[in-house]
Amino acid sequence: MKVNRMRVLSRRGLYRTYILSILLVVLMVSAVVYDYEKNASKAAVLEGISDSLIRFHVIANSDTDEDQRLKLQVRDAVLDKMTGILSESKNIEETRQLIYDHMDSMKDIASGIITDYGYAYSVNISLKLEQFPLKAYGDIILPPGKYEALLIEIGEAKGKNWWCVMFPPLCFVDVTRGVVPEATKETLKNVLTDEEYKTVVIADAKEDVPVKVKFKFLEWLNFNKKKQQEPDSNKVFVQLDESKK
In this predicted model, what pLDDT tens digit does every residue of 95-104 receive, in sequence order? Predict the structure, then answer.
């Protein structure tokens, strides 16, 4: 009798262990599926954001103070030229066409600035896919990834970068106060989905910006590490200093 009871208890223990093992496996599989779906969703949002914007990228000849100042002069001259032209653009297709239409004149402007400052550097200008780091513009933060960009390369193009966003026109707004104007955010709303917009607009109040920038930095950094561990994944990188190449 005692032996039979011990056998029953032993079977119950094995049964419980079996059930717990199954539950553990189910939980592990669920966690893996959830993590995969979460990363897939984040990747889709990233792709949607990058497909909706045109960036502006200027690379100096070198890192000397003179070449860096020249880069900024070229930047200012090109932006002065394009501000009025792009201000009425309603969508990314129209902006892209306007950039193509004025590419020769932008190159002439850049070459003229370089000549005026006594240099003989060449200028290459193109509209192409470029890898960009994480970048904050006031209370708007753009995730790292490949974006279509107007690229201006001065001379050997081995110096530090400068970049901004041509569409929507973040190049043409002052973000030194920490918050992007509502009109610019409305433009973003018109070109991004609700989820994409919530991803890039990180704060509703100015005092929230520094904290949320740090949080978003860590979030995308973690996502980048996971992407880099996947086979055949495109490498992405994180960088907050816009002056570094």
Answer: 999 999 999 9
Q: How many domains does the chain have?
A: 1
Report the candidate in 218, 219, 202 with the shortest Cα–Cα distance to residue 210: 202
pLDDT single digits (tens) 106-152 = 999 999 999 999 999 999 999 999 988 888 777 788 888 899 999 99
Domain presence at residue 22: no
In angstroms, the CA 145 to CA 237 distance is 8
- Cβ partners under 8 Å of residue 147, min gap 6: 50, 53, 54, 55, 129, 130, 132
Tell me which residue range forms the domain holding 161.
49-229
197 found inside a domain: yes
Confidence band of 197 (pLDDT split at 50, 70, 90) = confident
Q: Kind and range of the H or E element at 123?
A: strand 123-132
Q: Both tokens of residue 221?
A: 């950094």
Q: Which two tokens stand for residue 242?
A: 């816009």
- Asked whether residue 26 is domain-assigned, the answer is no
Do 70 and 61 contact (CB within 8 A), yes or no? yes
pTM over 0.85: no
